[in-house]
């Protein structure tokens, strides 16, 4: 792993982008600690930039290397998606060292890798502290943290995607994680397991987030089924225009993408919960075992549900494609009728032209001064001049018309000649 870690440092240094110009003066912060069986959350919810590295640094320990109580500290840093980080480079690197995350996590961050990763650290001797690093990346955030099994400290950085650096209000995901931490701390104080507490909170939040996401896509599918009349929903009886069909087709295409993304996130949540189940001594924490079992079952059935919704979405895509083809056929029929009407009009014009053209021609011809109707000789000696100019000019007009209408054919013929050469 040392080679990968060295590459990660180099890649992060080269590719990570930072912007500290427009951020808020303070960073949102949560401090959870367990003292004498009572879990509390520090009322202080922000810390200034010049204090965050010290705050996320190591706590004072007792003589045996343990702290007085388990603690969890979580700091939020707002980021673009995926860049820039709204903090200066030096402070971020100092934070990563203070948290003591595995260096390869920097590579996962800079490459915007999704999923759940754990990096266990194996101590070289009993006196060396064992640290375990974690990385979770979802559509809303990246969460990195480390857990010290000896001091029972958990230190985490929440990188919130797409959050405005200037907005003074707390981000929705930070408030949500705060509520989950508070709820778990108040309910499961006696079952508090320092090594898996934050992992379980993340898994629970992700499962509940996906529940809402799945429901929103179900509503989109049902609306499409009601409008098309194909599916489980009652037909709304609305005649869909071609524009409306196209809009629905775009929504269904977006729905397919979202459902695929949900399926990916279900795999992430499944990996998180499997890790909690694997690393926690469930016999000591029956309440947590019940939570993990319930959430795991929920993920399993949601995966089946996503497969079902994907089939419904693809069915609607096929129906909408058929409706579009039907509308295209109707438009083609209308175009054919219009073309036929235009053809009839052109025929009428041609007939009228043929009707009047002979009379017009002879009227013009007989009015020429080359014909003397009141003289003894009607056709004059220079009458041939008229035909000498008229016949070549007529031939020239037809020749020019032929060249212009065949220009594309001549160009193709010339290009083929060039290719042969």
What top-tier CATH class of the largest domain fits best? Alpha Beta
Radius of gyration: 39 Å
Q: Spell out the helices and strands N to C.
A: HEEEHEHHEEEEHHHHHH
Largest sheet: 8 strands, mixed
Keywords: Membrane, Transmembrane, Transmembrane helix
Transmembrane segments: 349-371, 383-404
Protein name: Cora-like Mg2+ transporter protein-domain-containing protein
Quick overview:
The chain has helices at residues 2-15, 49-55, 89-99, 104-110, 172-187, 197-228, 242-279, 286-366, 383-405, 407-420; strands spanning 26-35, 38-41, 46-48, 71-79, 115-120, 131-137, 141-148, 153-161. By secondary structure, it is of the alpha+beta class.
Task: Provide a descriptive summary of the structure in words.
The chain is α+β, with helices and mostly antiparallel strands and 421 residues long. The chain is built from 10 helices and 8 strands. It has 2 domains: 2-174, Beta Polymerase, domain 2, CATH 3.30.460; 204-335, Up-down Bundle (Methane Monooxygenase Hydroxylase, Chain G, domain 1), CATH 1.20.58. 58% of the residues lie in helices and 13% in strands. Strands 1, 2, 3, 4, 5, 6, 7 and 8 form an 8-stranded mixed beta sheet that branches. Strand 7 and strand 8 form a beta hairpin. The protein starts with a helix and ends with a helix. Mean pLDDT is 86; it is low at 60-66.
């Amino acid at each position: 792993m040392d080679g990968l870690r060295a590459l990660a440092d180099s890649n992060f240094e080269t590719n990570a982008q930072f912007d500290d110009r427009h951020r808020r003066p303070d960073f949102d912060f949560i401090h959870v600690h367990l003292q004498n069986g009572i879990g509390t959350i520090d009322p202080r919810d922000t810390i200034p930039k010049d204090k965050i590295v010290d705050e996320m640094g190591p706590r004072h320990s007792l003589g045996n290397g343990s702290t007085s109580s388990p603690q969890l500290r979580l700091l939020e840093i707002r980021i673009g998606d995926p860049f820039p980080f709204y903090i200066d480079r030096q402070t971020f690197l100092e934070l990563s060292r203070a948290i003591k995350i595995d260096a390869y996590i920097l590579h996962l961050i800079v490459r915007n890798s999704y999923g759940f990763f754990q990096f266990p650290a194996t101590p070289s001797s009993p006196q060396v502290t064992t640290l375990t690093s974690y990385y979770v990346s979802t559509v809303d955030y990246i969460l990195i943290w480390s857990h010290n099994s000896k001091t029972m400290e958990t230190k985490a950085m929440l990188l919130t995607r797409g959050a405005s650096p200037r907005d003074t209000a707390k981000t929705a995901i930070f408030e949500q994680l705060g509520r989950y931490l508070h709820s778990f701390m108040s309910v499961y104080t006696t079952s508090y397991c320092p090594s898996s507490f934050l992992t379980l909170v993340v898994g629970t939040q992700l499962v509940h987030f996906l529940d809402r996401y799945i429901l929103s896509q179900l509503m989109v599918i049902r609306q499409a089924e009601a409008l098309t009349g194909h599916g489980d929903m009652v037909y709304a009886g609305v005649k869909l225009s071609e524009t409306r069909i196209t809009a629905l087709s775009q929504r269904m295409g977006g729905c397919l993408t979202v459902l695929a993304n949900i399926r990916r996130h279900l795999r992430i949540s499944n990996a998180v919960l499997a890790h909690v189940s694997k690393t926690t001594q469930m016999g000591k924490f029956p309440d947590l075992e019940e939570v993990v079992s319930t959430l795991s079952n929920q993920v399993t059935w949601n995966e089946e549900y996503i497969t079902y919704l994907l089939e419904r979405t693809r069915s609607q895509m096929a129906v909408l494609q058929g409706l579009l083809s039907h509308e295209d056929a109707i438009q083609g029929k209308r175009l054919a009728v219009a073309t036929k009407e235009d053809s009839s009009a052109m025929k009428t014009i041609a007939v009228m032209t043929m009707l009047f053209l002979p009379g017009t021609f002879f009227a013009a011809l007989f009015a020429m001064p080359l014909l003397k109707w009141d003289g003894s000789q009607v056709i004059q000696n220079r009458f041939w001049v008229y035909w000498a100019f008229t016949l070549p000019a007529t031939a020239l007009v037809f020749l020019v018309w032929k060249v212009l209408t065949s220009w594309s054919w001549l160009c193709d013929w010339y290009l083929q000649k060039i290719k042969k050469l």
